[in-house]
Automatic annotation (TrEMBL):
Family label: Belongs to the isocitrate and isopropylmalate dehydrogenases family.
InterPro entries (UniProt xref): ICDH/IPMDH, IsoCit/isopropylmalate_DH_CS, IsoPropMal-DH-like_dom, TTC_DH
Domain Isopropylmalate dehydrogenase-like: from-to ranges: 5-349
CC cofactor: Mg(2+); Mn(2+)
Catalysed reactions, semicolon-separated: (R)-malate + NAD(+) = pyruvate + CO2 + NADH
Protein name per Swiss-Prot or TrEMBL: D-malate dehydrogenase (decarboxylating)
Lineage, broadest ranks: Bacteria, Bacillati, Bacillota, Bacilli, Bacillales
UniProt EC number: 1.1.1.83
PROSITE patterns the UniProt entry points to: IDH_IMDH
GO terms of molecular function: tartrate dehydrogenase activity
Source superkingdom: Bacteria
Keywords (A to Z) from UniProt: Manganese, Metal-binding, NAD, Oxidoreductase
């Protein structure tokens, strides 16, 4: 019997709504594939917790998470709590403490869907963004002075270490070695950001030499964003800094049908610490409580979790169930042009898992 422990953090807004559907899928996997158990504990760490306790998680929160095999996150952020609080006090400490330095974000047009670009080649629109997840522009170094005066200023440094840059690029190249197109596209902006980005480019050059079979393209982030729209079929593995990767993947979600279809894994490749799986979308307060959020990004994140656990068959069962529902096209949430609720779409995916 395989046994995994999961810390579940539903979070805020639509987070708990999509997480409910994710947990139903986990139960369906247990029931339909004897021999696997996912024991989970739900943590009520969110903005409501913050408003009561003055912090997003208990003082020993990270200590508690350390003992789990995996972490599942919904979404965080709520009106009344600044977004940087929910991100810097919950998501980022988890990513950093557990050395989840790879943020893996697939951009894949699922069967049954049409890209808003009216892109026809489903088989080709399938690449992955490898976002650096522990440093870069999300540095927490800097400060604000002269607040409330005309001389007020804010400075935020970005941090690129050789260690951090090498390890994310090595991961991206080794992933490209396993993929069909054998191509790495690196995002830069070394014409404008004249210290950290030339450093990044130099290390891209060094690591690319260790992979002579992989084609390397280095594009400025502005041009690369345009290429996401004009020639998305050319990408295979895109590697980017923390901020560039975050922006590119919202764009990537847009070309495959929206944020409801964008999963992610925060991976500690060495498996020394738990990895965390989450949809890339936020808590969407505008639709929270209406029961119409698309749960696919959350459920797809579970498929990524299965890949991380070296359970590709179970990962495929989840993806086939999602695509089966999309191909039928009957039970779809409003973002996909349907009238179904979050729960109805989740139930339909579960039904396909049992089929
Ligand atoms: N799904 C988790 C969530 O709420 N993400 C919102 C977000 O903006 N996260 C910041 C980041 O990924 O850098």
């Amino acid at each position: 019997m395989l046994h995994y422990s999961i810390a579940v953090i539903p979070g805020d807004g639509i987070g708990p709504e999509v997480m409910n559907e994710g947990l139903k899928v986990l139960r369906a996997i247990e029931e339909s594939h004897g021999g696997i158990r996912f024991a989970h504990d739900v943590m009520d760490w969110n903005c409501t917790y913050y408003l009561t306790h003055g912090r997003m998680m208990p003082e020993n929160g990270l200590e508690l998470l350390k003992d789990y095999d995996l972490i599942l996150l919904g979404a965080v952020g709520a009106p009344g709590v600044p977004d940087h609080v929910s991100v810097w006090e919950l998501i980022l400490p988890i990513r950093r403490t557990f050395q989840q330095y790879v943020n893996l974000r697939p951009v894949k047009l699922l069967r049954g869907l049409e890209s808003p670009l009216r892109y026809k080649g489903h088989a080709d629109l399938d690449f992955v963004v490898v976002r650096e997840n522990t440093e870069g522009e999300y540095s927490n170094m800097g400060g604000r002075i002269h607040q409330g005066t005309p001389y007020e200023m804010a400075v935020q440094n970005n941090v690129f270490t050789r260690y951090g840059t090498e390890r994310i690029l090595k991961y991206a190249y080794s992933l490209a070695e396993k993929r069909p197109k054998k191509r790495v596209t690196a995002a830069t902006k070394s014409n404008g950001i004249n210290h950290s980005m030339p450093f990044w480019d130099e290390i891209v050059g060094e690591i690319s030499k260790e992979h002579p079979g992989i084609e390397t393209n280095l594009y400025h982030i502005d041009a690369l964003a345009a290429y996401f729209i004009t020639r998305p079929e050319t990408f295979d593995v895109v590697v980017a800094s923390n901020l560039f990767g975050d922006i590119l993947t919202d764009l990537g979600a847009a070309i495959v049908g929206g944020l409801g279809l964008a999963p992610s894994g925060n991976i500690n490749p060495e498996r020394k610490y738990p990895s965390m799986f989450e949809p890339i979308h936020g808590s969407a307060p505008d639709i929270a409580g209406k029961g119409i959020a698309n749960p696919i990004a959350q459920i797809w994140s579970l498929s990524m979790m299965m890949d991380h656990l070296d359970l590709p068959d179970i990962s495929a069962v989840i993806m086939n169930a999602i695509e089966g529902v999309l191909l039928e096209g009957k039970v779809l949430t409003p973002d996909l042009g349907g009238k179904a609720t979050t729960r109805e779409l989740g139930d339909e995916i579960v039904r396909h898992i049992y089929q």
